[in-house]
Write a structure and sequence with these properties.
about 350 residues, Rossmann fold, 2 domains, six-stranded mixed beta sheet, elongated
Length: about 350
């Protein structure tokens, strides 16, 4: 269970990001399950920023009592001492072995407990010097990327703490789940078939098939699963034609036993898993290479460009070309250089 502690003036996007990230991971991956609880800290009135909003939650600080993970977003009063009871609640969480994460200026709140003394931590890049000055015993990472030191995790406030959530998902369920979760979170693509000159589909911005694809499980094997050797073999041999008999033979199981095990552990049949793995390989090649669709079709095992387009559209709701263009535009838009001399960012 993940408890998000909302202190007065928390940036709205930092407050909502954990629910979006962890719910996306659970929705698209069969073995993943999370419960996220938003807890209002003492004196909480609403979020900060240009469009503040309030929240109605039944949980206060007592909501942290049984949490496996406690997350601290930033808040407007981060330079002052934490509200009454917050330090004690965080010390109690740490004492029982809970994992604690801080986003942006939420690291100031965690540092105020003394739990970060002698440990590495990150905060918003524009506040690294201030954190080091106010809490000289903290080893402040100036890069602001997700930093882990024992049970304490911290990250800059860019993208509302999504980086920190993805870091925790990686620890819990592996890198492949985190990669697919990030893709689902950020690639909000419009369905514009590449052969129609960008004319929107008659079915609207997302067809029924695309919507159905959103609910489909991704090809992820739970860590420690007995299926890991055979799914790793499948991933290594995507460029070869693979049949159900081939997979069953490699797993040394009958087809019925193999299918039951795949459904139980991945939510997919072996051939559904294989197809989703091929689509995921195609996605990564589109993201990270300049290979033409002909080569991507061959490397992913989808055969021909027409077959790649057909299955890619059904699985993602968009075409390979649109996907590549949108991904690169996304990366370009999210990798701007920081300018410390500009006015301070929100917490």
């Amino acid at each position: 269970m993940i408890a998000v502690l909302a202190l007065d003036g928390v940036p709205g996007h930092q407050l909502t990001a954990p629910g979006l990230a962890f719910a996306t991971a659970a929705r698209h991956h069969h073995p993943v399950a999370y419960e996220v609880r938003v807890c209002a800290g003492p004196g909480f009135r609403g979020t900060g920023g240009h469009a503040p909003f309030g929240i109605d939650t039944p949980w206060g600080l007592e909501g942290l009592d049984d949490a496996d993970t406690v997350l601290l977003p930033g808040h407007e009063g981060f330079r002052a001492a934490p509200p009454p009871g917050v330090v004690d609640a965080l010390l109690a969480a740490a004492a029982r072995g809970a994992r604690i994460g801080a986003v942006g200026t939420g690291t100031f709140t965690l540092a105020a407990t003394g739990l970060l003394d002698g440990r590495r931590a990150a905060t918003s890049r524009r506040h690294t010097r201030e954190l080091a000055r106010l809490h000289p015993r903290v080893d402040v990472d100036p890069e602001g990327a997700a930093v882990a030191d024992a049970p304490f995790h911290s990250a800059a406030g860019v993208l509302g703490g999504v980086d920190l959530c993805l870091h925790l998902i990686t620890l819990d369920h592996g890198e492949s789940v985190a990669i697919e979760t990030e893709r689902q979170l950020f690639l909000h693509l419009h369905e514009e078939p590449e052969d129609t000159g960008g004319t929107p589909s008659r079915d609207g911005p997302r067809s029924d098939r695309g919507a159905a694809a959103e609910a489909a499980y991704n090809a992820v094997t739970p860590p420690g699963s007995a299926l890991e050797p055979v799914t790793r073999w499948m991933e290594d041999n995507l460029h070869h034609p693979l049949t159900l008999d081939d997979i069953a033979g490699r797993a040394r199981l009958g087809i019925r036993s193999l299918t039951r095990r795949f459904r139980a552990e991945t939510g997919l049949t072996p051939l559904q898993y294989l197809l989703r793995t091929r689509i995921q390989r195609a996605q990564r090649l589109l993201e990270r290479t300049d290979d033409p669709v002909e080569r991507i079709a061959a490397r992913s095992g989808l055969g021909t460009p027409a077959n790649l387009r057909h299955h890619f559209q059904r699985a993602t709701g968009t075409s390979p070309t649109t996907y590549r263009t949108a991904f690169r535009a996304l990366v370009s838009g999210l990798t701007w250089p920081e300018r410390p001399e500009e006015p301070s960012e929100e917490p």
